[in-house]
Amino acid sequence: LEDPHLVCCGHGTVFVGIEEVIRWGEGALIEEIQRASIYVSTSRSDSTSVSLLEAMACKTAVACSHSSCLPQVAGEAAVYFNPLDVGSIARVIITMLNSPGLRNRIA
Predict the structure, then answer these.
(1) Cα-atom radius of gyration of the chain, to the nearest Å?
(2) Collapsing DSSP states into helix, strand and coil, what is residue 79?
(3) What's the Cα-to-Cα distance from 16 to each of 20, 23, 32, 79, rounded to whole Å?
(4) Please, which pLDDT band fits residue 10 given cuts at 50, 70 and 90?
């Protein structure tokens, strides 16, 4: 992707780029997930498994940590990284952004 749009979510706040902060309800978040090229979860907690399922239901490719129960939840429908290794996270994001075939296969 030439100019990816980054949206980072957490604790009810969504950060778009660096300059804009948006607070929205669940419906708007689902719309953003549907528009996303990839959904990335760096969480090491099983509490994010519901959001992974939401992203998968939206047919959005998922990248997530290999921690907790997340591999059992996402199975082969995600690409995994070490959540404690920034390089691992970056490699997976870059690979997925540059691989539409991979995104389509796992979405």
Answers:
(1) 13
(2) strand
(3) 5, 11, 11, 23
(4) low
Residue type, 79: V
Q: Which residues pair with 63 in a beta bridge?
A: 40, 79
User: What is the reported pLDDT for 47?
Assistant: 64
- Distance (Å, rounded) from C-alpha 14 to C-alpha 96? 21
Looking at the DSSP bridge assignments, the partners of residue 9 are: 14
Cβ neighbour number for residue 53 with a 10 Å cutoff:
14
| Token digits of residue 52 | 């992974």
For β-strands 7-10 and 38-41, DSSP reports them as unpaired
The reported pLDDT for the residue numbered 7 is 62
Q: Quick check: 104 and 37 in contact, CB under 8 A? A: no
